[in-house]
Design brief:
The complex is a heterodimer of chains A (about 325) and B (about 140). With about 325 residues, chain A is of the alpha/beta class. Helix content of chain A is about 30%, strand content about 10%. The N and C termini of chain A lie far apart (about 65 Å). Chain B is globular and about 35 Å long. Classes of the chains: A alpha/beta (about 325), B alpha/beta (about 140).
């Protein structure tokens, strides 16, 4: 019997939906084994179709995107109810990803920046989400106070990491999931499969940091060049596509299984990789990393700040 | 975290986690004790073999679980039993302070001090200072109410 599959697009960029289409002809092969019962991005299904399905009737449900609105949360709960295996698909669903960086700000700050102060958004009536149109009585889903990830809301059975998951990750994940396995993927760090692995010196000593556009790339290990690369704290399996395109890893695969806090692990590693220097130089070099959260927690801010930015009075 | 801690600002007793290295800071704390020096009882000492063992994750977890302040005590630069563990800690603390600030936590809640095994008096003094400072800052915004 064909496996029933669902895919939902929560708060995300849509790259995950595209990544599933991006397996190209493999998708056609896959269609012999699966039946798509719900995929708003690619097929014409409505929420009520999903509501009408019997509980646990979907074999595998993929949830991509984070939970930013009450609608996302509602569908996450509904999908959990209707499916046997619920998969967090992509970095947003697993750990918040880029949009998780919004947890550095309050909802009110975000509305102000996006709807009121943005010069290219004419908004004379000063309408922000949540304001109600008196005549129409139209109610939109609530923009939640902070961004959540799928596992904050429902139990998750499996994860497919990546922003978006790359072909090798997907191929392995889909094969495993269709045969009933919920554990798959590698357990080592990206450095292990890095195309520049052989250029890594015995000992790395960084005397200053470069942002990657500031330096002529010499083709060697990025960290050895003083360019921050999240490879040591990031799970392997993606195939190192970014490195192959001469761009350092920013960590979208999340941490390897034995690391809980990806950013802290990388921050720790960076401290060990700095060469010998006096305290003053040390401060200067560290100061040059302008954005700690954006550098080390680019994809995991929602894990670092699960309830949004805190405010320390005084 | 202890249940009796916290309360309103008037009677606020901070909870402070102190990571102390086995060779210097912990011995310094011991020295403060054997010298009968008094320092506030707000610190929960955790002995580590080296201040370099303090993974940034430990610090973040302490804050996440509601600590009002985190203190790290290590050997003076040059005195590390493991050559340069304390220097690495100094760098990590520098980075962590920047990270905490971005998260919305006052970086003054994290403090690194060098305390040698003979500096019992210094240990008592810096702990007292730190407790005063945290009292001034009030409860951590991450403290579970």
């Amino acid at each position: 019997m064909k496996k029933k599959i669902a895919m939902y697009w929560g708060a995300g960029c849509g790259g995950c939906d595209v990544s599933l289409l991006g397996i190209h002809e493999k998708l056609l092969e896959l269609l012999d084994d699966i039946e798509i019962v719900f995929w708003p991005c690619a097929t014409d299904f409505k929420y009520e179709d999903l509501e009408k399905m019997p509980d646990k009737s979907i074999d595998i449900a993929f949830y991509n995107g984070a939970i930013r609105t009450s609608e996302n949360e509602e569908i996450a709960k509904l999908l959990r109810k209707k499916s046997k295996i619920l998969v967090a698909y992509g970095s947003c669903a697993i750990e918040g990803c880029i949009i998780g960086l919004a947890n550095l700000y309050d909802r009110e700050d975000i509305f102000r920046a996006v709807y009121l102060e943005n010069e290219t958004t004419p908004n004379k009536e000063k309408i922000v989400p949540g304001s109600r149109d008196k005549e129409e009585e139209l109610e939109l889903p609530e923009f939640l106070p902070h961004l959540k990830v799928l596992s904050d809301v429902v139990e998750v059975d499996a994860v497919i990491p990546g922003c978006p998951p790359t072909k090798p990750v997907l191929a392995e994940a889909l094969e495993a999931l269709l045969s009933g396995k919920t554990e798959f993927g590698k357990s080592v760090a990206l450095c292990d499969e890095c195309p520049r692995k052989d250029t890594k010196p015995e000992k790395i000593e960084i005397d200053r940091f470069y942002r990657w556009h500031e330096k002529q790339d010499d083709g060697k290990c990025f960290l050895a060049q003083g360019i921050i690369c999240m490879g040591p704290a990031t799970l392997a399996g993606c195939g190192g596509e970014c490195i192959a395109a001469n761009i350092p890893c920013t960590g979208c695969m999340g941490p390897p299984p034995k690391v809980r806090n990806q950013g802290a692990a990388m921050l720790s590693a960076i401290a060990s990789l700095l060469g010998e220097m006096d305290e003053e130089k040390e401060k200067e070099v560290i100061e040059s990393i302008r954005d700690m959260v954006g550098t080390f927690y680019k994809y995991t801010t929602a894990k670092l700040l699960p309830k949004g930015r805190v405010k320390d009075e005084s | 975290m202890r249940k009796d801690a916290g309360g309103d600002d008037m009677g606020f007793e901070p909870e402070i986690v102190a990571f102390l290295c086995n060779w210097c800071a912990y011995a310094g704390a011991d020295m403060a004790g054997t010298s009968r020096l008094k320092y506030p009882a707000n610190v929960v000492p955790i002995k580590v073999m080296c201040s370099g063992r303090v993974d940034p994750e430990f610090v973040l977890e302490a804050f996440e679980k509601g600590a009002d302040g985190v203190f790290i005590g290590g050997c003076h630069p040059g005195d590390c039993h493991y050559v340069n563990g304390n220097i690495r800690t100094r760098r990590r603390v520098e980075m962590l302070k920047k990270l905490l600030e971005q998260m919305g936590i006052n970086p003054r809640r994290l403090r690194l001090e060098w305390v040698s095994a003979t500096e019992g008096a210094k240990f008592a003094r810096v702990i007292k200072e730190f407790v005063e400072e945290i009292k001034e800052l009030g409860p951590s915004p991450l403290r579970r109410k």
